[in-house]
Specification:
108 residues, mainly alpha, Major Prion Protein, 4 helices, 0% strand, elongated, Aldolase, ATPase_inh_sub_z_sf
Length: 108
């Protein structure tokens, strides 16, 4: 029975580590998205930093990416940027790939 318990603990530890990694990469992605959107809107460096933080915080409103997409789309359209939901989703995917790449590079 000890072997089974050891395997169960190892599985739980790996699951927790994987979830932590995904959380970190997603937070980085959201910061990159915030920087991208701020650039589109022509924000200053100080405004960009504040806006990127607000995008990271927006992800805590509900599970999934819909809260972030809704925030970005609303803010960009309000700023007069011509973009649709597909454009925001494309940026989200590109920034997720960039966040993963950055994380892997830092780990090595």
């Amino acid at each position: 029975m000890t072997t089974f318990n050891d395997r169960e603990r190892a599985f739980e530890a790996k699951f927790a580590a994987d979830e932590d990694l995904l959380f970190r990469i997603t937070a980085r992605r959201n910061r990159l998205l915030g920087n991208w959107a701020a650039e589109q809107m022509g924000l200053t460096a100080a405004e960009t930093d504040s806006y990127a933080k607000s995008v990271v915080q927006a992800d805590f409103e509900e599970a999934g990416d819909e809260d972030v997409i809704r925030k970005l789309l609303g803010d960009l359209v309000s700023a007069g940027i011509e973009i649709d939901e597909l454009g925001v989703r494309s940026a989200l995917e590109a920034k997720m790939a960039e966040a993963r790449r950055q994380y892997i590079e830092e780990a090595n």
